[in-house]
Amino acid sequence: MDHATDPASPATASPGDPLALFEAWMAEAAAGEPNDPNAMCLATVDAEGRPSARMVLLKGLDARGFVFYTNLESRKGEELAANPNAALCFHWKSLRRQVRIEGPVEAVTPDEADAYYASRPRGSRIGAWASRQSRPLTSRAELEAAVAEMEARFPEESVPRPAHWSGFRLLPQRLEFWRDMPFRLHERQVFHRLAAGWRTEVLFP
Ligand SMILES: Cc1cc2nc3c(=O)[nH]c(=O)nc-3n(C[C@H](O)[C@H](O)[C@H](O)COP(=O)(O)O)c2cc1C
Q: 3-110+165-203: which CATH architecture?
């Protein structure tokens, strides 16, 4: 296909709006990836500037940014509280595409976190209470005992959201759309946020 008219090309689809382009790519991924098309690698840094990365799930997206949920006392939660600068990376293997997103995070509102928490299965809501995410676990039995304790504490269907469990919204300052092309002459289009709108540039592969 002629590259300039290929609707999947970042240069063709929504040239001025990276979030619309992201949504178009995500819709294609959702239709084709075998599982978790919304999985993304989240990178944070510690107090010494040392990076760490792990997968999380994208659970919300609007013009403000990219939302994920986690335990605020986890390693990532502590790191983001101390340094809000973060990066996300999506890789859709079957599409051979990558999207990189960078910017600071902000906390989602308690109402947003409550709404998403309430949408999760009861077992996941109990798990959020039982798991001291990222801290040492002596045995699987310790975790199972914590789950049993929380099931007894919250016998009703309704389980309140723990104060230590909420979400972050990454406010994109830079997005890069990468698309596989023959002979590794890949296509890379970058969007930099301006006071109003976006500046775009294309990079050598
Ligand atoms: C596909 C996938 C999706 C995941 N989604 C989440 C998520 O949305 N939130 C979360 O806290 N952990 C998620 N995890 C687990 C994290 O990768 C990680 O193990 C955990 O959050 C602890 O990370 P930390 O010690 O760096 O804080 C996911 C793991 C995988 C493989």
A: Roll (2.30)
